[in-house]
C-alpha cells in the first residue's frame, strides 16, 4: 500500500507577515488618494482665480482705449468745423468779388446742360413780341439742348401759326384750315409778283385744334404770309409769335452791346447777325449794368434752330470784332 502524501504547515510568523503587507498596501493606497484629491482641488482653485486676476488688466486697457478714441473723435470734429468755416468764408468772399447774380446764372447754365429741355406751352401773339421791351425776356422761348443731342421735334421749317380760339363760337363761323388757306392764297395772288402763288402746306396742330399752321419756303415768304394773315383772316384770329432759340454768350465786350446809357445799342442785332451769318431777333444783357467790368454775359435769340446749334457746337459768337463763348441758356 502507498503511503498518504505528507502535508506541511507554514510557520506562524509567515501568516503575520502577510497580514502586515496587506495593511501597508492599503495604507499607501489611501494616502495616494488623499494626495490626488488635494492636487485636484488646488488646480480648481487656481483655475477659478486666474480669470479674475487676468480680467482686471484687460478692463483697464479697454477703458484707456475708449478714452483715447473719444479724444480723437473730438479732435477730428474740431478740425472739420474749422475746415467748414474756412470754406464758408471763401465762398462768401467769392460771392462778394464775382457777384451773386452771375454765379447763380452759371449754376443755372450748368443745370440746363445736364437736364432735358421741357416742352413749351402757349405762345403770345406776334404783336405782343413787337411791344416787348428790348431788356425783357420773351416768353415761350424754345430751349436748345446741348450740341451732342437732338430732340425728335426739332425742325427749322418756318411756320405762320394762327390761333382761332377767340373767333366766333358758332360752329358755322369757325375758321378751319381750308378757308384760311383760301383766304391767304387769294390775297397774295392779287400781288403782281405772286399771281400763281400757293401755300407750301397748311396743317392743324395735333395738340390744339384751334391753331392752324402755314408752312413757308423762306423768310421773305414767312413775313408776307404773316402780314396777310394778320389783316385778312378775320376778327379774333391771332398770328402767334415766331419760335426763337436763345443761346448764352459769355466774355462779351460790354461796349459792343451797351451804349452810354446802358441800353442795347441800336443796330446791335443787325451787326451781330451779319458777323455770325444768322438772324438775331433779340438781345438781352445778363450781367449787372452797374458793374464797372468791361466784359460780361448776354443772351441772343435766334430765329433758326440750326444756327443756334451751330454756334453752340462752334463754341464762339462774334460781337464787335471779338468772340464770346457760347453755352445753353434757359430762363
Helix and strand topology:
Elements lengths: L11 H87 L1 H15 L11 H5 L27 E6 L13 H13 L11 E4 L6 E6 L2 H14 L5 E2 L5 E9 H4 L10 H9 L3 E6 L9 E8 L2 H10 L1 E4 L2 E7 L3
Antiparallel strand pairs: 1-3, 1-4, 2-3, 5-7, 5-9, 6-7, 8-9
What does this structure look like?
The protein has helices spanning 12-98, 100-114, 126-130, 177-189, 219-232, 254-257, 268-276, 305-314, and strands at residues 158-163, 201-204, 211-216, 238-239, 245-253, 280-285, 295-302, 316-319, 322-328. The strands form 2 sheets. A 5-stranded antiparallel sheet has the order 6-7-5-9-8. Helix content is 47%, strand content 16%. The protein folds into 3 domains: 32-98; 100-114 and 243-328, RRM (RNA recognition motif) domain (Alpha-Beta Plaits, 2-Layer Sandwich); 126-137 and 149-239, no CATH class. The protein is an alpha+beta fold. Strand 8 (316-319) and strand 9 form a beta hairpin. Residues 49-54, 117-123 and 145-154 have low confidence and may be disordered. Residues 1-60, 116-149 are annotated as: Disordered. Residues 133-142 have a biased composition (Polar residues).
Amino acid at each position: 500500500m502507498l503511503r498518504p502524501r505528507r502535508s506541511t504547515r507554514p510557520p506562524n510568523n509567515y501568516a503575520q507577515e502577510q497580514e502586515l503587507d496587506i495593511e501597508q498596501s492599503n495604507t499607501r493606497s489611501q494616502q495616494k488618494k488623499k494626495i490626488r484629491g488635494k492636487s485636484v482641488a488646488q488646480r480648481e482653485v487656481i483655475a477659478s482665480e486666474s480669470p479674475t486676476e487676468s480680467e482686471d488688466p484687460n478692463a483697464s486697457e479697454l477703458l484707456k482705449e475708449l478714452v483715447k478714441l473719444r479724444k480723437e473723435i473730438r479732435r477730428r470734429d474740431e478740425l472739420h468745423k474749422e475746415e467748414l468755416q474756412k470754406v464758408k468764408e471763401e465762398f462768401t468772399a467769392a460771392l462778394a468779388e464775382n457777384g451773386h447774380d452771375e454765379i447763380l446764372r452759371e449754376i443755372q447754365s450748368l443745370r440746363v446742360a445736364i437736364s432735358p429741355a421741357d416742352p413749351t406751352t402757349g405762345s403770345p401773339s406776334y404783336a405782343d413780341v413787337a411791344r416787348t421791351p428790348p431788356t425783357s425776356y420773351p416768353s415761350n422761348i424754345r430751349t436748345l439742348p446741348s450740341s451732342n443731342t437732338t430732340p425728335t421735334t426739332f425742325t427749322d421749317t418756318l411756320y405762320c401759326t394762327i390761333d382761332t380760339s377767340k373767333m366766333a363760337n358758332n360752329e358755322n363761323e369757325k375758321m378751319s384750315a381750308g378757308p384760311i388757306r383760301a383766304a391767304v392764297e387769294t390775297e397774295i395772288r392779287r400781288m403782281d409778283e405772286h399771281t400763281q402763288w400757293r401755300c407750301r402746306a397748311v396743317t392743324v396742330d395735333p395738340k390744339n385744334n384751334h391753331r392752324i399752321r402755314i408752312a413757308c419756303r423762306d423768310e421773305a415768304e414767312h413775313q408776307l404770309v404773316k402780314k396777310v394773315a394778320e389783316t385778312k383772316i378775320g376778327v379774333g384770329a391771332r398770328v402767334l409769335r415766331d419760335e426763337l432759340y436763345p443761346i448764352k454768350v459769355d466774355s462779351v465786350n460790354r461796349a459792343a452791346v451797351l451804349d452810354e446809357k446802358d441800353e442795347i445799342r441800336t443796330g446791335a442785332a443787325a451787326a451781330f447777325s451779319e458777323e455770325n451769318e444768322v438772324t438775331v431777333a433779340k438781345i438781352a444783357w445778363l450781367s449787372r449794368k452797374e458793374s464797372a467790368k468791361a466784359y460780361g454775359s448776354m443772351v441772343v435769340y435766334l430765329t433758326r434752330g440750326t444756327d443756334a446749334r451751330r454756334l453752340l457746337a462752334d463754341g464762339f459768337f462774334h460781337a464787335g470784332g471779338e468772340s464770346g463763348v457760347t453755352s445753353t441758356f434757359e430762363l
